[in-house]
């Protein structure tokens, strides 16, 4: 079957990309919350409690943003919190493991 734009955008990755702000925030938020609840270690600059709290806080910020964005509200305080969560991820990418 030849690829058509309709086929491409109906694929699972196409559906995610149509609204990447929501799908990315959901995907990453769920995983940060999971790590916050299940991690066994922490980076040196955090205590264990600070690390788990921070993971959960940023995960929930992304999930809150995704919920608002899917309703058409994107420029809210949740947006700024979601941006902060993404900055946290970039600063700590090497520590997002367990």
Question: Please, could you describe this protein's structure?
Answer:
- The model has no long low-confidence stretch (mean pLDDT 90).
- With 98 residues, this protein is mainly alpha-helical.
- The chain has one domain (17-95).
- The protein has five helices and no strands.
- The chain is elongated.
- α2 crosses α3 and α4 packs across α5.
- The chain starts with a helix and ends in a 6-residue tail after the last helix.
- It has helices at 5-10, 12-18, 20-38, 48-70, 77-92.
Brief descriptors of the model:
98 residues; mainly alpha; 72% helix; single chain
Main sheet?
none
SS strand fraction: under 5%
How far apart lie the N and C ends? 42 Å
Tell me the series of helices and strands, N- to C-terminal: HHHHH
List the uncertain runs.
Answer: none
* Shape category: elongated
**What is the strand tally?**
0
Q: Determine the structural class based on helices, strands and strand pairing.
A: mainly alpha
**Total domains:** 1
Short note summarizing the structure:
It contains five helices and no strands.
Would you spell out the secondary-structure blueprint of this structure?
Blueprint: H1 5-10, H2 12-18, H3 20-38, H4 48-70, H5 77-92
């Amino acid at each position: 079957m030849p690829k058509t734009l309709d086929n491409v955008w109906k694929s699972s990755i196409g559906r995610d990309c149509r609204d990447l702000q929501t799908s990315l925030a959901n995907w990453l938020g769920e995983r940060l919350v999971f790590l916050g609840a299940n991690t066994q270690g922490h980076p040196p600059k955090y205590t264990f409690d600070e690390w788990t709290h921070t993971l959960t806080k940023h995960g929930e910020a992304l999930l809150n943003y995704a919920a608002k964005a899917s309703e058409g509200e994107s420029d809210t305080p949740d947006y700024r919190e979601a941006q902060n969560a993404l900055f946290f991820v970039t600063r700590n990418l090497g520590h997002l493991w367990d």
